[in-house]
Design goal:
The protein has 205 residues and is an all-alpha fold. The chain contains 11 helices and no strands.
Length: 205
Amino acid sequence: MDQDKDSNQANELTANDILLVALELFTRKGYYKTALTDIAAALALPDTRPVYQHFNDKQSMAVQLYDTILDSLSVSIDEIRRKNEKPSEQLRGIVDLLFSLTDEAPAVMRFLCVLKHDEFLPEITPLHQTAAFVKINKIIQAGIKAGEIRSLDANLISAQFFGIILGTLRAVLNAELDKKADVYLSQTWIAAWNVVAKKASSSIN
């Protein structure tokens, strides 16, 4: 009877089930400390064979997670750009999204912002070259052209702006700050925007 139950669990297993567990383990234990046996155990599987039906190894899981998270972020940025005309408003929308994800999907944000992808995924597209971050760079370029953002190199502006944003989010994710990300949203936005805004007094509330 137990064998039938195990067989049913394996048959019902989807690639997404595996990825959700892998995401949690990669971000909680660390990529290198997570074995396929850990993933199988977390899925209540008797062994790793059902996992191998979907993925060749844990690196292929990590690649799929990276691509899926960045693709989803890219789609969200497109939606934010459609809803907001000004570059400053678009940047605020992206910041709101990142803070919301930190509270609602911390494992996703740990994977995106805390893990050092180049250590275990050396062949992936670097974060700053992905579609999502190229779109953010274009928003910054548009902000410079519109006179909202200081006339400096767009990559430098991005580094300054997101250095503050991501620094706060990492502090929340690492429990260096003891409240939810949303509590720090307004203050962090003001700090980051005033660093890059052409006129510091024009901060978006």
